[in-house]
Amino acid sequence: MRPGRFCASAKGSIPMSSRICVSHRTAIRPPPPAPVGPTQPTPPPPHLSATPGAPDHPPASGRCVLRAFRILPECTPNCRAPSHARPPADLTSASEYTATHRVLKRKGNKISWVPSDKPGRWHNPSVPGNLRRVKSIRPPPRVVWKSWLKGWSTQPVVVDNLSPGVGGSGAAGAGGRAATLRWDGLSRSGNGVTTAEIDPLLEGLTDAQREAVLATEGPVLILAAAGSGKTRVITRRIAYLLSLGVPPWQILALTFTNKAAGEMRERVGVLLGPDAGARGLTVTTFHALCARLLRRYAPLMEGRPGWAIRHDYTIYDADDQQALMKRVIGEMNLTSANWPPRSVLASISHAKNELKDALAFEAGAGDFYSRSLAKIYQAYERALRGANAVDFDDLLMLTVRLLQESDEARDEVQGRWKYLMIDEYQDTNHAQFLLSSLLVTGAGQPGGANVCVVGDPDQSIYGWRGADIANILDFEEQYPGARVVTLGQNFRSTAPILATADALIRRNKRRKHKDLFTTRPGGEKPEVVLCRDEHHEARLVVDWLKARREAGTPEASWKDMAVFYRNNALSRVIEDELRGAGVPYVIARGTAFYQREEVKDALSYLRVVANPADEVSLSRIINKPARKIGKASLARVEHAAAERGITLFEALGDAGALTDIGPGGAGAMRRFVEMVDGWTGGGSFLGAEVSASLAALVERVLNESGLRAHYKAAAVKSESDEDKLANLDELVSSAREFEESYDPESDPALAVSPGEQTPTPPLLAMLRAYLESVSLVADADKVDPASGAVTLMTLHAAKGLEFHAVAIVGLEENLLPSSRALEGDPDAEEERRLCFVGITRAMSRLLITASRYRTLRGLRERTIPSRFLTELPAEQIALSDQSETMEDFDDTPSFDGPVVKASRPHAGGERPPRGGGLPTAPGYGFSVGSRVRHPQFGEGEVKVIQGVGVNLRATIAFRDAGTKTLVLQYARLTTVG
């Protein structure tokens, strides 16, 4: 806190010389008006008088009036604790210091502020003559009066000051205004008369939302139903904490997407205004937070077993990880056909989310597949560390290890953040759960940690990528004494839509009960239609969308409509029909800006500038544009670098010393290294030749590398490549915008890291921060609901969005729910939650479809309607079966492939054959529920058997390889036991 500003514990009465008094946690206000006349300070109350030799923390004899009315001992000049503010030098006596604290005194059934010798007034001794009056207030009925020393058992109070010089204890004098005490967002003023005044931060909130905002201390669980305004609650809660005087740097809010974090920051800024002093507030994603902590504290871990990254690491995105994995698999003489990089990375990601490094994973490998995967995992980790790079899962795993093993890092982090808020807590995995418990003190102790988590178990849909619903279901066990606030009011959907969703989700057993209700009565019933096939389904959906458009209703705009599906394969027929009908549409999975080829090329150059050890980025751009560096020559340099234990970039500069590389290739390599060194000042980022700004550096790299000229030449040949050139220009604009919003003071890279002598050069720190922000863009950040087109997306991508009109297609067994979901299994409940999420995205109109026949993987099959359709409330939906004309479809040759009849469901699963047994695989010796072994995937359990003849397939849940569907003719399965 700057000298001359005032601690708000006395609402402008105590000037503080260094920092805000953490005991008060109330809003900082400007100094009081000019003095009116001289006054003398009042002697302090007897219990606050300072005595020689008093301890650092005298016994607590009361409460400060603005912290639940206890007078805190830290407010005395004897307090020498480093975490508390010191009294300024001009207040030398205990009398002058403690006299500024207002004391509650009982007057019959009313109370008054009487720290001075004049009843009903208090004064500021640092501003002579500044008298202010607070009227007597009657406590609210629910507040229990204990004693004038112990105060009230209620929330902190805010006092509105009167104009200076107003006398008396009755009505406001001339020029004054009525004083008000506020509690729980309501106000009382005058002689105990309730007023209509509401705290602006609590205005417009429901009772449940207000309760959530005001629950500031201890562990809090906010169960936020779909459409219940949880973002509003989180931002109001942050703003409320700031208004209480909590320093912004003590508040940490975590979420999963940059989009959500940006929206929260923006809303808090709107609530508090531009001069609110929210500088230092941290609202970010889990991965971005971990990236910052590793930048700052990685040097503390250097030299420890298994720790091989420095603070100047590079973050590899999904494409970089796949490129590296392909290289690793090739170097191990394996094939991508047998070891698909995407699948291998998914298995490694699962292990890292469980905080299993390569050695721990190898220790638990029990079959051939797992042991082979462990070797790939180890090679992948070696390649990452050799490039001084981390993937997304490393950010979490390494940060957890950092905070577990480094007392210095953990103490600094816990000493900074006193209030932790986590959004979408139902989506956290094991690593994120442990991380959250390490960020604040008091976790696991009754009422110890100021942790507020917000989420809804009914919307936990990411179990397949490691999310653990138990984190939110067991929160009250993990944080004893936690307060639970339920937000059940839905502001989004009409009553029939909400009733449909509620009836469906009540079928789940692993959940926390909530009574959902809405303020939007009436509305159209959701339409449920059984179609003939996927083409009929697509036509029906498009006609339904066009009808909404032509109706002129609030959902008439294309941008207010969306089509959801369980997997991307279902979108093709919908797309064809939309194009044929001339309906504009966008696909949420479309290539994002930072994933486009030309942008990735430019970013790879910048990553090499920031981290020359990044071999994945270096390999991408070493010969783009062409520099006459052959693959064979580059392979020789890579081999020489590995033998000498140096980076590829360093080896390129010494390529001339290699006898098996020609002078042309060696010269091209040397010029490349000299070009990069020119951009970085030889790695120092100092000197006149170094660019003055980030945008200038990006512009220079694009020009001097030849990348801009390369795409400009391509644009001459093809008009489509003009967009690529424009994208490079947009990248420069992106860097400029980042530079304008960049805050050097909040960048941990600019602080002197432990063990370092000098801080990171400012331009290098900004470049790394920019590349970090680009790498951490999430898939959910790519959806643009404001585009003037119908949005097509998977149900998972729809999470967090809302549209006036929503169509959900493909509600059939093995689609939604997916083939791995069996009745009673956790997977089945997650699939039901996924359907619930899709339904609750709809605001006014909802269409749900299923097809009697569908072509998938080249086979036209008779489908089974989803079990979820039978769980929808009949009185709340409009059901229509338009598939009856297909009853004799089996005998009609007018289709693209053979019709395969799937077995009918029984109790949510496969119907047993007439003999009473489970579905079997004729000739293979096993049935549903059998244990089988695969030579590559290991041991697993048969979940589903479907198809006939050569198309007979089994869906098997393998212990280590996940769920896979195999054609039995080629699967080479053997039974176990």
State the gist of this model.
The protein has about 1000 residues and is of the alpha/beta class.
Shape: globular
Spatial strand sequence of the major β-sheet: 25-26-24-27-28-23-31
CATH-level-4 superfamily name of the domain at 519-590 and 784-899? P-loop containing nucleotide triphosphate hydrolases
The helix-and-strand class reads alpha/beta
Describe the overall structure.
By secondary structure, the protein is of the alpha/beta class. Among the domains are: about 1-135 and about 145-155, no CATH class; about 315-385, Arc Repressor Mutant, subunit A (Orthogonal Bundle); about 520-590 and about 785-900, 3-Layer(aba) Sandwich (Rossmann fold); about 595-775, PCRA, domain 4 (Orthogonal Bundle); about 910-975, Beta Barrel (Thrombin, subunit H). Helices cover about 35% and strands about 15% of the residues. It contains 29 helices and 41 strands. The strands form 13 sheets. Strands 25-26-24-27-28-23-31 form a 7-stranded parallel beta sheet, with helices on one face. A 6-stranded parallel beta sheet has the order 15-14-18-19-13-20. A hairpin with a 3-residue loop joins strand 7 and strand 8 (about 150). Helix 23 (about 695-705) packs antiparallel against helix 25. The longest helix is centred in the C-terminal third of the chain and has 20 residues, at about 720-740. Mean pLDDT is about 75; it is low at about 1-200 and about 885-915.
